[in-house]
Amino acid sequence: ASQTRRLRRIKPCGAYINDQCVSTKEDIPGQLRATHLKCPDDYFQCNNLRCVPFYVRCNRRDDCNDGSDEEMCVYRQCQNTTEIQCENGQCIHQSTRCDEYKDCLDGSDESKCGFYPSISKCTYTIATEHLTVVVIAFGIVRLAGCDSHTTHLRVINSMGNPELDFCGYKIIHPLILHDTTTIEFSTENSIASTGFRATYTLIRYPVRHCPTGQFLCSSGVCIPATARCDGVLDCPDWSDEAACDRSCLQVLTSLSGVITTPNYPLPYPINTICNYTIAVDNARYQTTLNFTDYDLREVDDKIQIYIAEEDGSYEYYYLNTTITSQSVQKIFHFPLLSRVRLIFRSDYLNSGRGFRLHYTTQVPCRKEYIGHGIITSPNYPANYPTSQFCIYSIKATSKTKYVTVNITSFRLESRSMVVGCGYDYLSIYDGGSIDPQRLIGSFCDVIPVPNIRSTQDQLTVVFRSDYSFVRPGFRMVINEHDQNPENCSSVVSTKTTTCLNGQAINISAVCDNFEDCDDRSDEQFCVYNEMKNIHIFQQDNGIVETSDINVPNSSWNYVIHVSPGKKILIQFDDYIPWRNLSHLTTFQFYDDIDNYNDSFTFATLRTPKPFLTRSNFLRIEFTSGPYAAYLKLKARFKAVDGSNKTTCNASQYQCHLSGSCIPQQALCDNSYDCDDWTDELYCPGNNCSKTFEATQGSIESPNYPSNYMNNVDCTYIIKVTPGYSVVARLEDLDLPQKVDYDCSKDYLTINKKKSSENLISLCGSLSDAQVTEAVLDYHIMVIHFSTDLLYTGRGFKLSFSQGTKQCNKNFTNPVGIVTSPAYPNSYPSRQDCTYGIYPNTGHFYLDFEFISVEPSSLCSYDKIQITSLRYNLTCCGNMTNIKLSIASSSALLDFHSDVYINYFGFLALYYPLTALPDCPTWNLASAGNLSSPNYPSSYQGIIYCERELYVMNDELLILDFNELKLGRYEYLPYGKYACNDGYLVISILSNPQELVKFCNRLPIPRIKIYGQSFKITFRSFNDTAPFQFRLNYTKIPEAAIIKFTSPSNSFLTPGFNSDLLTCGSIHYHIIISGYSKILLIFHYYNISTGNIIIKDGLEKTAKTLEILTKEGFNVTVASTGSSMVILYKFATFAKSPGFNASYNSVPVTTSCPKHAAYCKDSNCIDQFKVCDGKADCLDNSDEANCEITDMYRCNKYYVNSSQGIVQSFHYPNTYPNNVECFYSITVSPGSTITLQFTRFYIHKSAQCQTEYLVVRDGANRTSPIIIKLCGQKLPPLIRSKSNTLLLQFRSRNINRLGEKGGFSAFYVESNDYQPCSDHQYTCQDGSCIPMYQRCNGYPNCADDYDELLC
Known about the structure:
1% of the residues lie in helices and 42% in strands. The chain is an all-beta fold and 1350 residues long. Strands 67, 69, 74, 76, 77, 78, 79, 80, 81, 82 and 83 form an 11-stranded mixed beta sheet that branches.
C-alpha cells in the first residue's frame, strides 16, 4: 500500500462543524447555526462565515473574499480642497501623498513619487522685510546617505548661523526665525529618497498679546481660543497643540478584555500618550496580547510594550518590544507571573486608526508524562475548545535517557501568511521550561511535524488555541530511549530533528538551501510546503490514484521520490482529463526537483504512453475543471536503474525504457508484457488500412469477433461508381468507453474524402448508437477506426452498398436539408440535378444558408433555378441567408454545372410555415429556463423553430447560457467563419436586423434585454450532430425605468465598457426637490444604433431638449424645472459603450451666497469667474458689463509719464490669492510704449489658464491681446501700436509650494528704446550696468535693485 502524507487541506474552510468543512451558512444545520455563526464583538460576519473587523466594511476592498463586506455600501465623494482620490475610489488627506505609507488600500498614493537626484545642490532664500517673523514647517523629512555624511539639510538664519543641520528620517517641528532665511540642501550619494517639503509663513507684524477669547501662538499670531488643543494644527508653529493634556491612563484588572486607542476606529488624536496596565491579581497566569488591528502612521507613532516580572511589587517595568507602522507581528505571549503595560505615543502629523487588541490572562492546564504515553489535545478526536492554554511536561525515567515525540495526527487552524503559526499552534521546547532560546519549533495547519527528540531527558509541549476557529487537534506518542554515547558528542544544538535515514540535525537547517542530511531529506520538499494538498510517496513502487469525486476549480499534488540514482517509470491504468484541453490542462508533470516552474503535459484525451523521468523525482499536479465532471488519474510507478540495464539473450526482447527482458514470442500478442508497454506499441499489424472498390461489401475490425488490439489505427476507403451515393449500415459495435467524452478513447468515424468533418462518430455499444445507417452523397466514403492504449472490445462490423444517383432526389419529410453534389466539397463538373421538394405541409419556406456558384452576368455557366407556382428564379454567385416563401405545396430546385470552374455549391433548409411538433412552446414567467427539445438529452435531427417572447416596457430580462452544444464553429466551404451544423439566434422584434448568433462557444456573456420583446430562432441542418442548449432567464420588473431623486448623482448605462450584451430601451427619471432645475452632463457617449432623447419633464408631451446619436463628449443639457427624462434606445446587441453621465441640481434663485456670483439663468458661480474671458454661466451673463473695477484696491494708472515702473501687488513678496489687478499706462497721443520686464514669476499652467498676466494694446479689457504670460521665463520686449497699454493680472486660490511670485517691469515713451545686452543687467528703471556688478555688495543701480534678492 502506498504511504502518503497529506500536507495541506484542499481549500480554506469558513468553519469546521462536527469535523465537517463548511463554507457558507447554508452548509450548517439549522439547529447549529445559532451556536456556530457568532463573530466576536466589533467584527462583521461574511456570507462565507469569515469574521473581519467592522472597520473594513465598505473600504472598497474584498476582505471577506466573497464580496459580502462591500455589499449595500454608499461611498462618499472626496473633498476637492483637502482630499485626493485613490485609484480604487478611496479618499485620503492630500498631505499623505508620497509619504512612504500606503494610505490607499491599493497603494496608489505612493505611486509615481519621485526621488531627488543622487547629486543635488540647492539653495532657497526667503527674502523678507526687516522685523518679519519666518516660520518654516518641514513636517516629515526623509534623507539618505547620512552614514557617509554626504547629505545635509541646513537652515541658516539672517545672521548666517545654522539653525538646523539634519540628515535622516524624522518629523522636524517648525522653526521660528526672523528676517531673510536660507535653506540649503546638498547630496552626493547614490542612494536617494523622497527628500523634504517645507512650507513657510511670513508674519510682518507679530503681536505679544491677544484679545480675550484668543490664543497667542509662539510665532506672534492670534487664533480663536477654541482652536487650542482641538487636534488641528492651527498655529503655523504647531504651538496650539503643544503641552495638551491628552494622556489616557487605564488599569485593567479583568481576566480578559479589549483595549483600543482613543476614537478607534476613527483616527487617533495627535500628540497623545496613553498608558494601559494589565494588572490581574492572580498567582499563576500568563498574559497574551492579540492585536486584531493596528494602523500606525509616520516615524514617531508607536506602541511600546513593557513587562514587569514578579519581585513582590511589580515596580520595575522594562521595554519588551516596540510596534511601529512597519511591524507585522500581531500576537504576543509573555512569561508567567509577568505584568504587561502598553504605552501608545502619537506625533503631530498624520493619524491612523490606531489599534484594537484582545488580551487574555490564563492559568495553563498542566500535565506531566514520564517515560511512555500518549498526549492528545482537549476533546480529541473532536474539535478542541477555543482559548486553550496547556503545558505538557515530558520526562524520561532516568537522566541517562532521552525522550522522543512522534505526532501521528495533526490538524490545527491554518497558518497565517503574515504572522505564521500565530492563531492555534503547538510549540515544543527542549528541556523542562518554556525558554525561547530552547524552542525547537512551532507548528500549525496540517503540515506534518517531524519526529523530535530531546538532547537531555525532558521536553516541554505548549498548546494554544485562540478565540475563533477550532480543529480536531493532535495526537502524539512519547517514548524514552537510552542515550547513544557515540552520538552524544555530536549534538551541537538544543533544536534537533531527524533525517529520513535517522541522522539528527539542527532544526534550523531544514529548508535552508544546504544539504545537511546525507540523504538530502532536509531540503527535498521545502518548495511544496505552501501547496494546498500534497501526497508524498517516498518509495520505489506504488500507485497514484485520484479520487473519483472532484471539487471544481481545485488542485492536488502528488510527489514521488525514489531511491537515489534511479529514475521513475510511469504507466497509466486510467487517464480522464478535462475534455476541453484548450481551456485547462488537467494534469501537469514536473520532473525536476529544483525547478517547479518547468513542466510538461499531454495534450490529448487519450491514455498517454508510459514515460521515464530524468531523475528520481516526479510531481504530478492535478487540477479540476471549472465544472463538476468525472476526472481520473490512476498510474503505477516503479524505480528503474537506467544506468545498469540487464543484458538480454537472443531469444529475448529488451523493453525500451525499463530495460527488462521478455520472451520474443510475447511481442505483439495484444498483452503488455513489458512494464513500459513497448512490446505492443510498434506492432506492424496495428496499421490495418484498406481500400474497397466495389458496389457492396462488409468491413470488420481486426480480430472480430474477438477483441481488437490496443493502439490500432485503421483507415478504410470505400469507392463506388462516381455520381452515386454510398450507404453504410452498422451491424455490431463494442468500443468500451468508461466516460462519454465525445468518443475520445476508441472510436469509429465516417466522413467524406477530403473532408475533416466527421458525419458520424461512434463508440460504446450498438444500443448506444443514435445512428446506425449513414448515406453519403458522394461516391467515396472514408471510415476511420482508432483505439488507444487501454481497454478493448469486440470492435465493429458494418456493411456497405452503392446507393442512388447523387442528383434527382425527392424530399417528402416536413423539414429537410438540400445540398449541392459532394457537399461540403466543391461540386463536380457536368452536373445536372433536379431536387423535388414535396413536404405535404402546404406552403413552406426554402431558406438558403449560403449559395456559392460560379458567377456570371446571366448565370450562363453554373446556376441554381427554383421553380414553383409563384417562383421562377435563377441564382449564381456568392450569397448568404436567402429566404424564399413558397406559396404552394411543392417546388423544384435545378442545379447545373459546366466543364470548368467549380465552386462550393449550396446549403438550403426547407420547413413549413407553421411550427414543427418538436418545437418548444415557451412562455416567460418571472424566472425559469429555455431549453432545446428533449433536453437534457440531445436532439438528433433537422429542425427549425422560432418563438416570440414578450417583455414589458419597464421590465429587464436577464439571460444566462449554462449549456450550448449546437455543432461546430468553423469555416464553411465558402470561406465564412460560422456555425456549421446549427445555431441559435436572439433578435429584437422592433429591429429584426439586430441579432446575436451562437452555436458552440461557451462561455457566453450575460445578455440583458430592457423593455423590448424578442424572438429566439434555432435550427439544426445536420441530422447526425447532437443539438442541445439551455439558458436561464430572470425577469426584473420596473428595472427598465431607473429613478434618481438625490440632488446630484453620476451613472453609467448597463454594459458601459464591458462585455455585456445589452439591448432595448431604458428610461431614466430625474426628480429633485425644491425650486431647482437640473444640469445634466454627458461626459462621453457612443451609440452605434439608436439614440438618447432628453425630455424637459415627466409628461409624454414634454419638450425635447436634446437628441444625441453616434459619439460625443461633454454635452451639457439644462432643464427648466425640477424633473427630466432620458430615453436611451439601443435596440442592438453590439457591445457598445453606451454613456457616462452625471447631474446636479441648480437652485432657481435671484441671489447667491457670499463669495458667489449670480447668473441670469439662475445659476451661481464663483465670483472670480466673472469677467474672466470664459463663459461660465449658461447664458454668458458672467461676461457681460465687464468694466474694470478695483475690487482689491490694486489697480494703478500711469498717465502722462514718459517712463515708469510697473510691479505686481505686494512686490517683491508673493502676490496674494484671488486678486484681479489692472495697470493702465498712457503716454502722449501719437506716441507708443515699450515695456521691458526685469523680473517675472507667475504660477505656470497649461495655456496660462490658472494665473496669468495679459497685455492688451488699448485701454479696456476688450482691446486686442498682445501676449498672455505665465511661468518664470522673462517675456520678450513688448511694443504697443497705440499710446495705451492695459496689463490685466489674475491670481487664484492655489498652493504655490513656496514659489516667489510676482513681476516687475519698466516702460518708456519711445520706439527708440534699446534693451540691455546679454552681458549687462537691467536695473528697475531701465538703465544698464555690467553683469558682474550684480550682487557684489555695492548698489550700482540708482534704485539699489541690483542688490535685491541676491
